[in-house]
Amino acid sequence: MLLSHLPALQVVLPLIAAPICLVLHHARLAWAWAMLISWSAFGIALSLLNRVLSEGVISYHIGKWAPPWGIEYRLDEASVFMLVLVTTIGVVVTTFAKESVEKEIVKEKIHLFYTCYLLCFAGLLGMSITGDVFNIFVFLEISSLSAYALISMSDDRRALTASFRYLVMGTVGATFYIIGVGLIYMATGSLNIADLAVKLPAVADTQTVRAALAFLIVGLSLKLALFPLHSWLPNAYAYAPSAVSAFIAATATKVAVYVMLRVIFTIFGVSYVFGTMNLGPAILSLAIMGMFAASAMAISQKNVKRLLAYSSIAQIGYIMLGISFATVTGLSGGIVHLFNHALIKCCLFMVMGCVFFRINSTDIKDMAGLGKRMPFTMAAFVIGGLSLIGVPSTVGFISKWYLMQAAFEAGSWVIAIMIPLSSLLAVVYIWRVVEVAYFSPSPDGETAIKEAPVSMQIPIWVMVAGIFYFGINAEFTLDVARRAAESLLGGIVL
Amino acid sequence: MIIDNFILLSILIPLVGSFLIALTGRWENVRESVTLITSCSLFGVVISAGSAVMAKEKITATLATIMPNITISFDVEPLGYLFACLASFLWIVTSIYSIGYMRGHHEKNQTRFYTCFALAIMGVMGLCFSSNLLTLFLFYEAITLCTYPLVTHSGTEEAKRAGRTYLGVLLATSMVFQLPAIIWTWVAAGTIDFTAGGVLNGHVSTGLGSILLLLFVFGVGKAALMPFHRWLPAAMVAPTPVSALLHAVAVVKAGVFSVLKIAIYIFGIDFLGLLEAHTWLIYAAGFTILIGSLVAMRQDNLKRRLAYSTISQLSYIVLGAMLATKAGILGGGMHMITHAFGKITLFFGAGAIMVASHKTEISQMKGIGRAMPWTLGAFLIGSLSIIGLPPFGGAWSKWFLCMGALDSGQLIMVAVLMISSILNVAYLIPIVVQGFFSELDVKEHHAHGEAPAFCVAAQVITAAGCLGLFLYPEPVYQLLKIIEM
Amino acid sequence: MSSLGLYNYWVVVVLMMSGLYIVVAHGNLVKKLIGLNVFQASVFMMYISMGKVAGGTAPILDESIKVYSNPLPHVLILTGIVVGVATTAVGAALIVRIKRAYGTIEEYEIEKHEIEEEETNAAEGLTCF
Q: In chain C, which residues have their Cβ closer than 8 Å to the Cβ of A145?
């Protein structure tokens, strides 16, 4: 009985847990509560994954209202993949957050932090699971609003302006999205994704639908920080509390990418977007520009968190590049990179959390000699960095392999060469940090080991283990990604 | 038992060794004993499989399946086995030498040094036994990354800059040329396994084959084919044992080994011979041979001179591979071994001089042979072997390379090889001559004697190796002959 | 008729553009927030207009009522309005805190403060990079 309601529980659980967290009003208690919720959500996601992989698509009707009138929660390979990703990151970051948040946020506000955190978590899960375009908007705003609040909780006053900028850009993006939704509703009278996929082709050749596509793509591009609509991202990631950076960097933009996938492939269909409208070259060129421009900007950063933020924009470029090929290989490359990059960035931002925990700064200049003082933390940074570069046996390599393979299969070897070329820029920005941390003496001559607490180390090394495991044995992730890509490209099978 | 798991053992031993070294770092003697024991047991394991390899037994191991149909797997073939023997044997010698050198030179961070050294050897072992391009690439990159801390060992601004060049060139070439080539091969041929006779023939046109060949050969930056040679002189800021084992043997030989392996098992020498690009690469190699030697003559810093000499000598092997004849491959494989013994002797000599007299420039080394007769004697033997004079090993490999060049009708290359030998004489012999026959610098107050005993011992062993390779080349020759082409 | 008949949509477009313009052009954070509100209001109008059927009444189940407007967009936009209110609230709260932290809500002044902060940081760390 309960099992059949798991899709609803996946979202409702953290959603209800959030106000309870507010009532708890105690730092440690709130953390324990958040921990409990994220583990249960993780468990639910795993069991849903298991069911989808063995039984196929799950369709859950909220309040027993049948789609297309009622809201449908629809779970196929792609959405369940996102659920597992978000909940995994959720579990890891919550573990990490305990010490990190106690250090960075005043004690009286910690329960508020976890309230917002759970809300954000619920919003992201909702976006992944729902099969209704308007419902996506609602969850998008739940996650975004709580994200703005989370970012502004940092001590650094620059976080406030960063959060405000994010709020303005994010709201504009979401509003664009809702305009697009309105326009397709005008044309079809439906909001259900599966239903839209059936109804849209009949009216596809109208100005309304074309405008809808434009609004949806631009709005979502803002949300997922596609170059050049990324200006909100660097400061928001750089000045947010460490746990928030780790969580948002790994999930928020990724879920937005997922929604983009839904819009492009499921609702409008690959032949319309890439055939009739011919958006492929546009997305491709923006992706490549993003890969190079953002990596180049990352090189000149003084603050490592900002550096990583720019690198995130570049990585979004890789994901979009994979999508722009509109082939199974390309799309699965994009989806795999979505997962892989989430692992890497989560790991790297948590490392920066540990660094901040000890030295109260994440500026490169302050990291001299850190390789000796925090050997484990910095080792994790090196591994994460290598994975970002795409060194074999790490996850980054798998995605790059797939993207390059897709490029070769599409016959465009120029693009295939672009991918490793932009990785070289990653070598430069990662190595700037590595050189300072390992080959510059500490400024005060201090070399005593002062590692971050174990509870912050464990999540980092879990991610590192993931980076290696899914880098050496990628069959599972690739299989899920390939199935997701096939189901996206094949349209929805009703 | 050992035979069955010998591949995994030979990768595991240096890995475990590096952990133990890191753990025992606080106690110098224990740490260095661990290094020695690890290197000896590695050599023991590798050598124990000799008869099985000669009998062409199939020994394979698969570690993991990375992507569908793409695995990390290993097998043993003669060329790789030969390289593994070479690297593991010279590791022992270098370990002995390192003890003398690192202590004599009072280097800092010695634990990091020995740990990374062992890790680099692990990379080499993996590379030797890799049975597909991806595994090769994996260990190729591992070697680059593990040797980076060795290059920047001293932590000075100069070392950091050298480290950037080192990492930049090696990673850039491998990621921008080699990796796309691998993936292109995978897309075109549907397999990246090393197969006797090659996998590309019939799947790609000769035009695309030419592009792939260029991508592969330039993508193996470790082969130091010009214009991607800058990293090797830069890497000379590293402590001398690193230059000796890694930048004269393990790392650079990993490069040319990859070229040989790709030429034999991915292209196949028949297909290789059909490609337009193999002629261009022969000329590129010839160019590198001559220019490398000429630049070497102009270097006053001894280690840099040796580095440019290495660049030139590596192209002999690339040349051997690109000739696309059996004799060429044989010569290339031979030269991998003989040059290794010769060059490591020279580097040992350079390091010994540095430890004993703190001299790095050739112009300062007048009359040094009187104080350090053993060192300079070994240096002379190494030089003669590099030049290719009997009775030293280098003579054989040059002989086979010339045969290969004649076979494929590349008379110009025969001339290049001859000219290069003369250039070798011109940049190596004067060092010995002025060392023995010039008067000691009058301004010299600081008298010094022979290098530490550990250093001398290592040099004697490798110099003896040069001689031994001339007298008993049979095992090497036999191994190379059973390569299935 | 056709262009005038769609006059609500003209209003929508005008509101949308002026809202966006305010967001982009004004440096005052409160004005930005107001612009954002105007922008969102245009979308509310769009949804309300699209559901309206000419001559229709509220959708009440009664025999006398033949033509009624589509209630769904109206309900949807109720949610949209709630989201808009929440966004404004969060934005306003942020502005209050920004005013406390920087003493101003003008964007260029805030930027000046931030650049100064950067420079003092950079001056401290010149030795390294």
A: 83, 86-87, 90
Within its chain, how far is the Cα of B482 from the centroid? 22
Fold of C2-124: Helix Hairpins (1.10.287)
Residue A371 makes CB contacts below 8 A (sequence gap 6+) with A378, A434, A437, A438, A439
Q: Tokens at residue A442, please?
A: 């500490």
Peptide bond into A7 cis (omega under 30): no
Tell me, what's the pLDDT at C127?
39
Q: How close is the nearest chain B Cα to the Cα of A452, in Å?
A: 21
Q: Do C94 and A148 touch (CB under 8 A)?
A: yes
Which three-class secondary structure state does DSSP give residue C60?
Answer: coil
- Terminal Cα distance for chain B, rounded: 30
CA separation for the pair A355, A352 (Å, rounded): 5
Enclosing H/E stretch for B70: strand B70-75
Question: Which segments in chain C show pLDDT lower than 70?
Answer: 1-5, 121-129
DSSP C26: -
Report d(CA A442, CA A439) in Å as an integer.
9
Partner residue opposite A424 with nearest CB, options B67, B160, B171: B171
- Closest chain B residue to the Cα of A435, Cα to Cα: B160
Angstrom distance (rounded) from CA A10 to CA A43 = 9
Segments in A105-232 forming alpha helices (H):
110-129, 133-152, 158-188, 193-203, 207-224
Cα-Cα end-to-end distance for chain C: 68
* Any A CB within 8 A of C102 CB: yes
State whether residue B482 is helix, strand or coil: coil
Yes or no, beta carbons of A185 and C73 under 8 Å apart = yes
Whether the bond between A281 and the residue before it is cis, its omega within 30 degrees of 0, is no
Provide the pLDDT for residue A1: 60
User: HSE on the CB side for A460, CA within 13 Å?
Assistant: 27
Closest-CA residue of C relative to A70 is C72
Looking at the predicted structure, is the pLDDT value of residue A157 above 60? yes
pLDDT attached to residue B443: 56
DSSP assigned state of A303: B
Amino acid letter, A164: F
Residue segments in chain B with a per-residue pLDDT below the cut of 70 = 1-4, 440-448, 485
Chain A, window 125-144: residues with a beta carbon less than 8 angstroms from a chain C beta carbon:
134, 137-138, 141
- Residues forming a β-bridge with A75: A58
Mean pLDDT of A43-70: 85
Determine the distance from the C-alpha atom of residue B357 to the mean position of all C-alpha atoms in its chain, rounded to a whole number. Answer: 27
The residues facing B70 across adjacent strands are: B67
ipTM of the complex: 0.89
% of chain A exceeding 70 in pLDDT: 98
- Say whether the C–B interface has 3 or more Cβ pairs within 8 Å: no
Rounded distance between C-alpha atoms, residue C2 and residue A88, angstroms: 54
Q: Give the pairing type, strands A58-61 and B60-67.
A: unpaired
All residues at 6 or more sequence positions from A138 whose CB lies less than 8 Å from its CB, including other chains: A126, C79, C83
**CB within 8 Å: C94 and A157:** no
DSSP A336-378: HHHHHHHHHHHHHHHHHHHHHHHHS--BGGGGTTHHHHSHHHH
